[in-house]
Amino acid sequence: MSMFRPDLKPIVAAAIGLVMYSMPLAAEGDRLDELFDRLEGAADSRDAAQIEREIRMEWRKSGSPAMDLLHKRGRTALEREDFDAAIEHFGALIDHAPDYAEGWHGRAKAFFAQGRHGLALADLERVLTLDPRQYEAIFGLGVILEQLDRPGPAYDAFGLVLRLHPHHERAAEAIKRLDRGVNGVEL
């Protein structure tokens, strides 16, 4: 029995390209721009954690109470590990608000939890199309790539996370874990 292994190079290249080339195009004065500037210059992980909470609050703003309710229900289902219900709630959210990146991100998490990596990757690609700075989606991409035994692209994804969020502990740990295998050992 052969296992289907998708060619992830286009997805990784698209994610890297989106992050690298879209960041300068963001509108000046935007609240997220300010938060990302503060995150980049955060003195320590405690300051970064506060800024991260503010970024998450901005990401969660859908602009609609009905969409906020669907998002909350999806998150609650994820917390309960009721992944089928989470997929339903996030799917409804995506149907009604296809440009709301957090709906796609939530569904990607549920697909990943079910081991449905292809569907999770497709949703993560959509998240990054809508919001190239969504470092948690990039982190998720790195996790999937690492699980699919693609250490080089996973390392690159984790590096992008650290570029956006220099105090992201799990990305820093992943970089350390993958460094020797990707970059070899200095003699």
TrEMBL record:
<dbReference type="Pfam" id="PF13432">
    <property type="entry name" value="TPR_16"/>
</dbReference>
<keyword id="KW-0802">TPR repeat</keyword>
<dbReference type="InterPro" id="IPR011990">
    <property type="entry name" value="TPR-like_helical_dom_sf"/>
</dbReference>
<keyword id="KW-0677">Repeat</keyword>
<feature type="repeat" description="TPR">
    <location>
        <begin position="67"/>
        <end position="100"/>
    </location>
</feature>
<feature type="repeat" description="TPR">
    <location>
        <begin position="101"/>
        <end position="134"/>
    </location>
</feature>
<dbReference type="InterPro" id="IPR019734">
    <property type="entry name" value="TPR_rpt"/>
</dbReference>
<protein>
    <submittedName>
        <fullName>Tetratricopeptide repeat protein</fullName>
    </submittedName>
</protein>
<dbReference type="InterPro" id="IPR050498">
    <property type="entry name" value="Ycf3"/>
</dbReference>
